[in-house]
Sequence to fold (179 residues):
Amino acid sequence: MIYVHLAEGFEEIEALTAVDVLRRASIDVQTVSVTGNKVVTGTHGVPVTADILYEDAEYEDCEMIVLPGGMPGTKHLGSSPLVDRWLRYAQQEGVFVGAICAAPSVLGEKGMLQDRSATAFPGFEPKGAICTGQGMVRDGQYITAKGAGVCIEFGLELVSCLAGEATARQIKEEIQCQR
Fold:
């Protein structure tokens, strides 16, 4: 199971593009509200109904945790003790973690990207990381991306991690991605 976390003020395109690309690859993905309510409003005022509430997620079977950026969504993710608990679980168990835009800063604050290559939206570079400035970076179990402009590339890398490069290439061709 893949969990894409939604907090009030999340970046809609970053969350929903990841979900879309993963589902095109027939990967089991669910959106998870960390707010206590199924309807979560993004940073641009778009209400999204999450598949499940945070307390209903079964992280022991999780293959990947995805954190979209956006403000104040990133701050809400970073301050959530439950998100912290499962990110630490992911770190210990080698579970993939994807973070885009401002969200890599959450991983940096928790010391998860120490001496790892990463990228983020300018001004949100994660502490301790070797920030490349590239659009998308994968270093071990961590996949980081710079922002909304690389959502498809980010989604394809998530697919590559879980279903292989051939599947990611197939999705790329199907959606006519030119990058």
Observations:
- The radius of gyration is 15 Å.
- Helices lie at 12-24, 73-79, 81-93, 104-109, 151-163, 165-174.
- The chain has a mean pLDDT of 97.
